[in-house]
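Query structure, 446 tokens:
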């Protein structure tokens, strides 16, 4: 939606947009709803608040709740953030699949699509396919649907958040340094942001998933590879270059060296991820230790395939002892790593997601047992370890929240609010990340 700025707002002073950003932040995050609460929270005088609220109502960014009796005092009527002011295009890549959706500014998804896709086919094919899906979604929307305000993309590898490029991603040949962000921003004439998939899943869990309302959370994705996202005091912790939480390549012990996709040996991912389960499940099928997997291998080979991680889960479900041992080992190795993280970082919740985690309770049980055994009592006193309800949706939701957070950060808002919307401003992304961040400490919700 594009709203003509009224004359008095053509050139708002810096303080004005900062106040607008603070106000929107409070309303978006549910920390204030009435004019009274906003006035108190923002320390704005009686005269300063009304023009600010009117301007944001006029821009279509707020709606006046107008609930309750018609006689309700104006100060008590609820203001709400208008999530349909703009739309977000979101995409999430895994090692073996891709998902797309269109989201509103509060991360609600519509038009979800999921298909299998090999990330190793390279960026041209992967991003070309996502563009096709995005274009189709946009074509199918009714006339008058909100304009695209931003794009959020998750990739299964290390991403330099500042530039929106994957950097030496181990399972993504051909993607190193590819300008993913710039490609989407140029095509859709809107700002775009790209992040590691586990980061976005962590954000999605905290805003709308099983970790909703938690402030200190670690999300671990056990899929083909292993990665983690860290939420600290309610905000995603990316670290200096965007690699925080990249736990898949920490060294774990082992009897014999196992080569990892990254080129090193005995990485956590190489011993406990889905690809490792498929490899060791195949070995168990061949050496006779797993009759179940031997039968499954024959079926798969008949159609040109081989044992997959989900076959190991099926075998364990059927009571196959070799498969149970493999999944337990996975959980134990992930639990060892997490015990270190728990002692170091003291989260209140760990969420385990990804294909391997969703295959059954064995992995989760082994993770729990190991973390509680190996962490200090104070660190685990309030710790809960849960399984994600849905890694696909939570990644897409996280991608939408990432884009919305960036769009409504004070420094971005200062640039687009005077123009009415971020449409046709793909360059917003560049100034938007890295240098000028939000305040270091965001107040906890009360
Ligand atoms: Zn590695």
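Result returned for the query:
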């Amino acid at each position: 939606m594009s709203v003509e700025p009224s004359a008095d707002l053509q050139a708002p002073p810096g303080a004005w947009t900062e106040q607008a950003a603070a106000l929107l932040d409070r309303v978006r995050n549910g920390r204030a709803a009435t004019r009274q609460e906003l006035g108190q929270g923002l320390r704005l005088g009686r005269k300063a608040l009304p023009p600010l609220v009117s301007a944001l109502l006029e821009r279509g960014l707020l709606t006046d709740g107008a609930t309750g009796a018609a006689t309700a005092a104006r100060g008590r009527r609820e203001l709400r953030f208008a999530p349909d002011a703009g739309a977000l295009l979101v995409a999430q890549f895994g090692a073996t699949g891709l998902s797309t959706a269109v989201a509103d500014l509060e991360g609600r998804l519509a038009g979800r699509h999921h298909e299998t896709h090999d990330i190793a086919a390279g960026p041209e094919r992967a991003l070309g396919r996502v563009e096709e899906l995005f274009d189709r979604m946009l074509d199918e929307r009714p006339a008058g649907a909100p304009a695209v305000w931003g794009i959020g993309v998750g990739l299964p590898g290390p991403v330099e958040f500042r530039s929106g490029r994957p950097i030496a991603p181990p399972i993504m040949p051909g993607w190193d340094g590819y300008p993913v962000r710039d490609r989407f921003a140029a095509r859709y004439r809107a700002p775009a942001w790209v992040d590691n998939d586990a980061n976005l899943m962590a954000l999605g869990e905290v805003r709308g998933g099983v970790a909703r309302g938690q402030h200190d959370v670690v999300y671990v994705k056990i899929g083909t590879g292993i990665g983690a996202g860290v939420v600290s005091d309610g905000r995603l912790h990316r670290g200096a270059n965007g690699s925080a939480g990249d736990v898949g390549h920490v060294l774990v012990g082992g009897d014999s060296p196992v080569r990892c996709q990254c080129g090193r040996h005995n990485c956590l991912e190489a011993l406990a991820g889905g690809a490792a389960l498929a490899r060791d499940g195949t070995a168990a099928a061949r050496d006779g230790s797993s009759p179940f997997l031997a039968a499954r291998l024959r079926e798969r080979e008949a159609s040109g395939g081989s044992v997959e991680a989900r076959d190991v889960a099926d075998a364990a479900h059927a009571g196959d002892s070799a498969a149970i041992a493999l999944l337990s080992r996975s959980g134990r190795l992930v639990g060892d790593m997490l015990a270190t993280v728990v002692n170091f970082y003291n989260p209140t919740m760990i969420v385990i997601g990804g294909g391997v985690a969703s295959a059954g309770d064995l992995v989760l049980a082994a993770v729990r047992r190991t973390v509680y055994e190996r962490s200090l009592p104070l660190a685990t006193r309030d710790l809960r370890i849960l399984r994600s309800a849905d890694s696909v949706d939570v990644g897409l939701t996280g991608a939408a929240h990432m884009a919305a957070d960036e769009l409504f950060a004070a420094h971005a808002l200062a640039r687009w609010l005077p123009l009415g919307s971020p449409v046709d401003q793909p360059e917003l992304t560049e100034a938007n990340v890295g240098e000028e961040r939000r305040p270091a400490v965001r107040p906890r919700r009360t």
